[in-house]
Design a protein that fits this description.
alpha+beta; 5-stranded mixed β-sheet
Length: 278
């Protein structure tokens, strides 16, 4: 069975609410804690969440014309450079904002974000394609799902940095992983295959599930469920899976956390797959 549509529209409101609730409990020193997001501290990750919410509202809801470099034609290194510049300039400007101001702004922006996303038609064409899935045209549900994975994984970075533990609802992570798996056919685009070659993926934990990446005449495709005798089998926890897909693990770290059987070389593109622009 092919990957189903994952409609995340109604998940933004409770997820963002839980992020805001946590932010309101943090002490001043918590905002300076390091996170798994490279050089970003907790305050930088919060600033980024605020930035991305405001961008979505401005460019999508309000139809603000994006600056040069942000349009659908931006790809590859040009897109990465543009996104990195947007992120860096906002993080620098946010140094002027107090934790309370950022929290209050995000509380308001995230409500407006949920209000807007809940109005969208999931089957309509998205304004921008999901580039990490290799698409030049995407449906709105996948673009909305991309936004959901951004909020969830940055929220998780904050929670880990301050020792808050996982989010309260494992269904949110399950939705994140369902969306992230759309990166796999693109990650395998240069891997030669023959009919029947497959990679079985088992994820354990509260967001557990099984999927199969299989080569067919049209190329690599992901289905729900596992084949009885896959070419390669990959097993990992849901905590490992989200860190892998969202660029928080090196290849050696991934290899130490993932159990492989069968043709291990066939699993390497999966371990390098990313569901973010990097």
């Amino acid at each position: 069975m092919p990957l189903p549509v994952t409609d995340t529209r109604l998940l933004f409101r409770p997820l963002c609410g839980e992020i805001v609730e946590l932010l309101r409990t943090l002490a001043g020193h918590d905002w300076e804690r390091s996170t798994m997001a490279g050089a970003w501290r907790v305050r930088d990750v919060v600033a980024h969440l605020l930035d991305t919410a405001l961008r979505r509202l401005s460019f999508h809801r309000d139809r603000l014309v994006p600056p040069p470099g942000a349009g659908p034609a931006a790809t590859g290194g040009d897109l990465v450079a543009f996104i990195n510049t947007l992120n860096a300039t906002w993080i620098l400007a946010a140094e002027r904002l107090s934790p309370r101001v950022m929290t209050d702004l995000y509380a308001r922006a995230s409500i407006e974000l949920a209000d807007f996303l809940e109005t969208l038609n999931p089957d309509a064409a998205a304004a921008l394609p999901v580039s990490w899935a290799g698409e030049t045209i995407s449906l709105q549900w996948l673009d909305t799902g991309r936004e959901f994975t951004e909020v969830w994984h940055h929220g998780s970075q904050i929670r880990e940095a301050v020792g808050a533990g996982p989010f309260s609802d494992a269904r949110w992570l399950r939705a994140v992983l369902q969306i992230a798996l759309h990166a796999l056919p693109f990650a395998y685009r240069d891997v030669p295959g023959r009919s029947g070659v497959s990679v079985a993926i088992t994820i354990t934990g509260g967001a557990s599930g099984t999927w199969t990446l299989q080569y067919r005449d049209s190329g690599w495709e992901v289905d729900e469920g596992n084949l009885a005798e896959p070419t390669t089998a990959v097993t990992m926890s849901d905590e490992t899976a989200w860190r892998l897909f969202f660029n928080a693990l090196t290849l050696p770290q991934s290899l130490s956390l993932v159990r492989l059987t069968g043709d291990a070389a066939l699993a390497l593109p999966l371990l390098r797959a990313r569901s973010v622009i990097v």
